[in-house]
Amino acid sequence: MSLVRVRVPATSANLGPGFDCLGLALDWWNEADFVLDGEGVQVEVHGEGAESLPLGRDNLIAAAALRLYQHTGSAAPHGLRIICNNTIPLGSGLGSSAAAVLQGLLGANRLLGDPLSMDQILVLAAELEGHPDNGAPALFGGLTAAVMTSNGVIYRRLAVPALALAVVVPQFSLPTRAARAALPAQVALEDAVFNLSRSTLVVEALRSADLDLLGQVMDDRLHQPYRLPLIPGAQAAHQAALDAGAVACVLSGAGPSLLAVARSDPRPLAAAMLAAFQAAGLSARAFTPVVSPIGAQVSG
Ligand code: HSE
């Protein structure tokens, strides 16, 4: 009976202007054990999503695992049990679906003797997700810039110094599909230039821990103006974080969570954002994660 354990971190994508290309790995993990046992596919979920996630082939981890068997021309296993211990809030803009996809791909890859390289795993993950900005940092850790091309994913990983972060997750459903549907198909040239000029400087500000620079450039015109109004209290929470001294505050991925960068203690920023969401009638949870220099881990 083989046992493979896969740990994948939470990620915060976009980081303001880096829509669909920048992402940061957080020291905040989902773990899944893969056991060749029994018949068919059976998934057990503990922690986040225990009440709601599907427990068969339609579970995202299971579907990604079966996709890798198919992609490599391998017969699906007679019996596969997947036991999940989740700590990343679901559907929150913290990369829980990228984590699930990578868990399935990496677990199946190890069960088959690692036929695919990490770069090939990233391509499959980006195809399943539609964009590489969560998958790249989840796989490699740190800050990543990634681009999907017809020849695969081009990416670079950058080590980043410690950052003081506050993440607030409101209890509000904003599926990524809906958050993407809210975006315009075309944008003004000045908005495109606004983002691309800032995204290069956001990378430099994070790499060199230049918080003054980060505060000047961590801003966006391609997705946040369309998404923040969909989330009750989000605009107020964004402003509350800045009023409480945040260097910058952005939507984490497609939301609904917000990520704020602090100069020192992130807890006052978390408290300010929590209060703003609560004033808008949403309960919310606050976290103060740190950056993970490492990405997914596979053992067994
Ligand atoms: N870059 C993606 C988006 C992240 O903002 O839609 C979604 O996980």
Description:
With 300 residues, the chain is an alpha+beta fold. It is built from ten helices and eleven strands. Strands 1, 2, 3, 4, 5, 6 and 11 form a seven-stranded mixed sheet that branches. Strands 8-9-7-10 form a four-stranded antiparallel sheet. It is globular. The mean pLDDT is 97. Bound molecules: L-homoserine.
Radius of gyration: 19 Å
What are the low-pLDDT stretches, counting only 5+ consecutive residues below 50? Answer: none
Shape descriptor reads globular
Total beta-strand segments: 11
Q: What average pLDDT do the residues reach?
A: 97
Number of helices: 10
Helix content: 25-40%
| H-E order | EEEHEHHHEEEHHHHHEEHEE
Distance between the termini: 11 Å
Query: Which structural category do the helix and sheet elements fall into?
Result: alpha+beta
Which ligands are bound? L-homoserine
Q: Which strand-content bin applies to the residues?
A: 25-35%
- Report the sheet with the most strands, covering strand number, pairing sense and barrel closure: 7 strands, mixed
